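Sanity check. The docking grid for LOIU5U6P depends on where the pocket ends up, so I'm generating a full predicted complex first rather than guessing from homology. Inputs follow.
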Amino acid sequence: MRAPGRLAAAQVTPVVADHGEGPVWCPDDGRLRWVDLLAGDVLALDPVTGAVTRRHVAGVVAAIRPRTGGGLVAAVERGFALLTDDTVTLLPEVWSDPTVRMNDGACDPWGRFHCGSMAYDAAPGRAALYRLDPDGTVTTVLTGVTVSNGLAWTPDGGTAYYVDSALGRVDAFDVDRASGELTGRRPVVAVPPEQGVPDGICVDVAGGIWVALWDGGAVHRYTPDGELSVVVDLPVRRPTACAFGGPDHADLYVTTSRQGSPPGDRSPAGALFRARPPVPGFAAHPFAG
Ligand SMILES: O=C1O[C@@H](CO)[C@H](O)[C@H]1O
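Predicted complex below; grid placement will be based on this.
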């Protein structure tokens, strides 16, 4: 096995989030957006000026994606919301148990927003993966999940990668292009515990799988065969998610968390970072509703 290539990620914002998550490039206005999850805020970076803006959306906002008609779809604490530039429309709650919240999510190539949950104490098996269809229908896709996390589709849409962080791996599903159904779950990447916990993920144009490693201080790129090919080093312990951005989708943005940082911590945990990988990505699929 060849030694992996190594990249360093550069800090591109001050420490602006307690728990940064869910980065996504928004081509409509050329901003990289992400969330400060437990603050319920959506952050936006203008990469040209470096300016960061903040918008409060709800008590918790866990994931966002652009909508094809403009605005954003969001996963809030126990369900979904539709955002325009100045309105927030909460959809009916998917569950009522206050000990469980939404976590990471992404849209499939057909515009369906998938987002999973986790118990606030990460208790095993109490979470699920949901799908919000453009018509507002919510479907439970997986149950018995612990920390529903990264989700991404291959460039041809035929395979979906999924992370339940508690399993310490990245799984693959076959995708039925007509219905979007996910079947044939199998592990494709195993992350040794000493390297961290798999968190958010994204895929590049060559089908490489980029995995943010919570407590690992790095993002790893794996080939579709599960071989480690690139390591992106971060100066903080808890990266949470990664996404390609920029007009050419050639920058890899990495969100980070201050959760677990000691009082008075002066590290840049909670800032947004960026690296320039050898392989570019592609636009995140928007929500068709
Ligand atoms: O994405 C996430 O991962 C966990 C830590 O494993 C964190 O609380 C959640 O937002």
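Relevant for the grid: Residues 5-275 form a domain with the Neuraminidase fold (CATH 2.120.10.30).
Also worth noting: The two ends are 44 Å apart (CA to CA).
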